[in-house]
Amino acid sequence: TAYLLQDQLEKLGYTVEMNTLTEAGPLYTGLAQGDVDVFPSAWPEITHAEYMKTYGESIEDLGTYYDNAKLTIAVPEYTDIDSIDELAAASDRFGGKIYGIEPGAGLTGQTQKMMPEYGLDGSYELVTSSTAAMLTELKSATEKEQDIVVTLWRPFWANDAFPVKDLEDPKGAMGKAEGLHFLGTKGFAEEFPEAAELIEKIKLDDEQYGALEDLVVNEYGEGKEADAVDAWLKEYGDQFDWTVTS
Question: What is the mean pLDDT of the chain?
Answer without folding.
Answer: 95
